Structures
1.
Amino acid sequence: MRGVTEPARVVDIRSQVCPMTWVRVKLGLEAIGAGEILEVWMRGDEPLRNVPRSAAGEGHEVVLCEPAGDGHRLLIRKGA
Amino acid sequence: MLDDLRIERYARHILLREVGGVGQEKILSSTVRIDGLSEAGCWAATYLVLAGVGRLHLADPRPVPAGGLLPLLPAAEEGSPRDQVAVTALASLNPDVVSSVEPAGPEDREYELVRIAVGGRDEDYVVATGNGRAVGGWTAVGSPCPRCIGDALRSAEGVAGSGPAPALAGSVAASEILAAILQPAARPTGLRIHRLGEAAPLPACTHGGAA
């Protein structure tokens, strides 16, 4: 069994631009089970602003958002 | 699974909560049949192809009328079979969709044919199914009044600049088909299914028109 914040899947959207940033994250969330964690690597203001908000708006939990490398690392727990 | 090309192509569908990647895959794997290429049917076919319905079967050998019909049947094709002209026109809209001409007449179809009622006459209907599931008809309660819409569609047939009624009807038909594909168990309330052969009278006009 995975740890509470061990990702079931990793999505790297550092080379993507809106709206593909959220599209890729959304597809990543569809590919994991409820309660599992998706790890997202992103770069720039747009995804930092929009991806956590979109995730929360669709019923997922943003567990962590922290600076990492040249961008940010985000952990999202998929909602039911 | 959606490949990168399709993810790009359908990105704005995937963004919709009601669709997503799983829903788009359902749409791509679905088969829809449309009997009757009035202007409403042409609009419905166009919207469904743009949505990415995998296979679209069209059945309407009637000749293209003088002046053509928006948005698929140009005036230059006057006299040609509507379904054949539509298949050619649709081919350029979405490479994922295979559209084909089917024999007219529902009697020998394997599909569960359901009427999207946009009028009370055979030439004014759009008939379709999605993955063998029933597709809802026009609302039987409240607006838009199916009689008024039907009259608008009949008067619009073959008339240039016929206004928004056929496009509206085609849009509603396509939306209903997509809803049936995506969420067959969560049908909107107030919609009424008209099965072929069912003598279900249209409700009285709620706007003072003919009964």
2.
Amino acid sequence: MGSLLLLGVIVIWDTSRTELPALNMTISPKLFPLIIGWFLIALCAILAIQIIRGGTAVPEGLRAGDKIEKSDYKSFAFILLSFLSYIVLITRGGFVVASTVVFVGIAYSFGNRKFVKTLLIGLIFAVVTYFSFTRYLHVDLPAGILKGIL
Amino acid sequence: MDGFVSALSFTNLGFGLLGTFLGTLVGVLPGIGPALAIALLLPITYTVAPSSALIMFAAIYYGAMYGGSTTSILLNTPGESGSVMTALEGNQMARRGRAGAALATAAIGSFIAGSIATLILAFAAPEIADLAIKVGSADYVALMLVAFTTVGSLLGSSQIRGFISLAIGLVLGLVGADLQSGLTRLAFGNVSASEGIETVIVIVSIFALGEALYIASRFKDSGWTVISMKGKALMSREDVRRSWKPWLRGTAIGFPLGIIPAGGSEVPTFLSYSVEKKLSKHPEEFGKGAIEGVAGPEAANNANAAGALVPLLALGLPTSATAAVILVAFQTYQIEAGPMLFATNPDLIWTLIASLFIGNTLLLVMNLPLVRVWVQLLKIPRPYLFAGISCFALLGAYALNGSTFDLQVAIAIGIVGFLFRRFGMPITPLILGLILGPNLELQFRRALQISAGDYGTLIATPLSKILYISLILVLMAPTAIRLVKRSRAKTVK
């Protein structure tokens, strides 16, 4: 049932978002967004009908009729937090710091509890990636606070 | 022949080898596919020559098809979507101690199908390109609409979810300044957003970040059990006798379905599987490890990858997520894939096609004797695997422009990817919508400009008429099949 409610939220989110092009229409460049907007609204309506008739969503990797367990939102939130920390850390701390933190964070969310080992692996991973990208692929990555060392 | 000379040059061979290696790697590891691997490597297009990069990308595409079969057979977790059918019979064979035979029939079948299909590609693509030069804007509009419809209807659990995915992709494609009028759309006053959403970021984050979020929230605790392999990856004479026909039939099914926009390898592998089940002399073995059920779909899978390159090269029209990413690579090189490609960049094309033959041979060598090495990869603990993948994805999103706005977009798209998986929506339509949407709009406007606003021009040519009719047929097919089934059920009663 939780899934049904969430789908409803997506539907509303879609609709409210696409009403914007519908409001300020004039001519040519507005035509396409308008078509897509109405297309989306129509799709949402059909989906709503299907759900009411019992055609609920089946999560990927499961088959129709399988018992749908509740999502583990604790792990979900933790991973999301790791992702968000990357935004802050990449500019403040540099690539190696940000990558190591995300690495450890995600490994933790997946149930890994060996912190020291994970930290080391993450650090090696980040340093190797840093050098292979900056030296061999000529992609600039911020060195950040480790500027003197790297 | 010049193509072979160029493809065998040290640099290109090196990139080809690297591509086959990476391709097998991403194919073997569940959760990451060729589309993601190529998207992550797109930054190299800034520093590497076009032919080398494209050779590598094509090799990744082929390689993933080989690698995916290994995972399906030994792990029962399809490494990529085209291997779902292989998992059915292949895993059963492995459980009965016939892993070696299953892996061999998959690899040899892939090799044969890949070689035949690449040969057809070499002959067919220039012919199609010749025809395609005559294709006008209105026809392109029709072609793209057909591509959207088939991809939307054929993938995923329901037609409606496919179309929703497509529509969201189209919306993402709208964001930013309109190329012709300069009008900024859906940017909500954000300067970074007005430059549009980078395709690469969407692809990388919807696959990698979305997958990490989804797996963590659902299948975190379900570990992997690799079935150990006894003996070598070899086939008995009996196995070969039972495999060669499915190989050829698989090729015959996979290649044409790659050319038409059927949305990747799910449909052809499924078709091949059901054909083999019907034609088999041992139908009772299906579901318990029938070798035909591995040989056919695996051949179809590889032939399909080659087939998908035909519309990509000849029309600039991708029919699968991976082909769509390769198209983005063309775009970053300012090379326009499509009918003119054979006239403007013949060297590139022939080098690419030659490298496909070479890559295919390399893959056979890498996959038969070295299969144990790949299996070792599956022993990487999942926390590290997903941590690494996510780090790469974030790196890819950031390195593109060095902007944190891109990272915000990436994380948001990652959440979308999670929701798509949670609610059973296919991802490929979104990617096609994102990449082809702006293109469709451009051709649509061009057609109407030429006709001075007369909508009749859209259905004026014979080709467009045929295409629209087939479009309606595709849309109606699922409903029609349901109706027929229902009426049959009634007559039986």
